[in-house]
Amino acid sequence: MDLSSALSIYKLNNAEFSRDDLDRGFKGLVKKYHPDRNQNFSDWCHIRMTEINEAYEILMASLESRPPKENRTQESRMGNAPPRADREEISLRKGATLFFTGVHIYYDYELTKRSLRQEGVWRYHYKRAIKLMEKALEHMEKHLTPHSGHGEKFLYFGQLFLCDIQSFDPQIPLSLRGSKTHVAYREATEMIDRAFSDYFSSNSRDREKYLTPLYRASHLLILLIENYPRTEWYALALQKLNLLDSFLDLQDLFRMGIIGF
Predict the structure, then answer these.
(1) Cα separation of 62 and 3, whole Å?
(2) Domain 3-64: which CATH class?
(3) Could you tell me the residue ranges of all domains in the chain?
(4) pTM
(5) What is the pLDDT, as a whole number, of residue 94?
(6) What span, in angstroms and rounded, lies between the C-alpha atoms of 139 and 131?
């Protein structure tokens, strides 16, 4: 499918359409053509939805490829390169901004729900979020010197976060499902997901409320680690606790104004 065909499906003008226009068009087409709404023509609607999803990806790629507005810094206008320490801080800020753009997409589209990640527009946004976060970490690894302190903190969190959201659901044996340990682990992970979603969502109004569920989750994970060494619970809980600890360490960078989102 080419760009012209994609524009035709969404009835958009290449020179004018915005992200809101595209998302609005997608929602309207889903309401009209989703197989669940047209069960007598489900096969035809499935083909149509495949075209709609493909067109969405093409149009989003076109939208994102538009050249950004020129934004030169004072240093570049003066022709002066900033000192190394300033360059590292600029690189960290740039990488963090790009990383959190991906994080916002991940939570704004509720991609903690794994069932959504392979469906149409959500699949596209999941892939896009992962790509942005990977690009951000690659940028920082390339431009930050080893043992740069603040950069290492951010890289550690970013790597753990990216690994966590891409990992498969843990395989809990049937004999252990519903046990107290399974309930505690599930409660802890749900609290972390909810707290991160409240904190990182671009439209969050309850950002300051993230600490209470995280402390509760931390308590549950520590209990699992202390009481179930050399078991699958130990490994699962330790992975989540490392992510949680690195997030709390990251708060220092936010409070100091070194990074933001």
Answers:
(1) 8
(2) mainly alpha
(3) 3-64, 85-255
(4) 0.69
(5) 86
(6) 12
